[in-house]
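COMPLEX REQUEST
Ligand: S-adenosylmethionine
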Amino acid sequence: MTAPTNIDPKDIQAHLAQFKGDKYRDGWASLWDKGDNLPWDKGFPNLHWRTPWSSALVPGCGRGVDVLLLASFGFDAYGLEYSATAIEACKKEQAENHSWYRVRDQSIGQGNVTFIQGDFFDDAWLQKIGVALNGFDIIYDYTFFCALDPSMRPKWALRHTQLLSPSPAEAYMEHLSHPGEDIPYNDQGLIKQDPLRAPSKAGLERVAYWQPERTHETGQGENGKIEDRVSIWRRRN
Ligand SMILES: C[S@@+](CC[C@H](N)C(=O)[O-])C[C@H]1O[C@@H](n2cnc3c(N)ncnc32)[C@H](O)[C@@H]1O
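STATUS: Structure written out below.
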């Protein structure tokens, strides 16, 4: 397993600030190309997982640890990365640490693992892996949303409605209730949202929300208090 690193995330923000608009992807790719000092990359999956469906997408999967874990639960798991270097890291993780991702339930067995290079927002990678639009039962987003330039968040939510099958789904944040819409933010970067506002017609619906019993240190506050939350969302049609 790769050891956690200590780089100040502020250095990452300064680096990414040099890549404006759509160029932000190249900012992330260049971080991967620099080497192993990647503060988001814990080297092992967050352990708040429990329930299997059948096919799972991990966009911006990084080193692929969550993809391998999902496959060990029996999902056919797809890891999508824009960075070709990250895809290499995924394959290395799979080759070197496969014994850590043992099958969790023999009656379900091991799911297939597919790592694919591509941009979450276009369809070329879907064609390469032979999966149709609305072909994923769940999308597991772990620090991908926050990797995007905030201007892309409406498109991020809209993309979920294009990728999720009409079955249980996982994702987070207010954007999913109003996909494709501009959501107002205040100058501290917090959403200005009326919590009583009805979801839009195409909006996803949250069906579960919980505080995990354990999580990475970055998801904990003072005295180990867990600040991470997990939500499950589904289409409403
Ligand atoms: C903060 S990292 C999180 C990686 C991984 N989920 C983890 O927790 O270790 C965000 C990742 O998203 C990838 N990424 C950014 N924009 C992308 C895009 N449009 N399509 C696919 N991957 C993207 C970056 O290369 C980076 O590895």
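REMARKS: The CA atoms of residues 111 and 121 lie 25 Å apart. The chain is about 25% helix and 15% strand.
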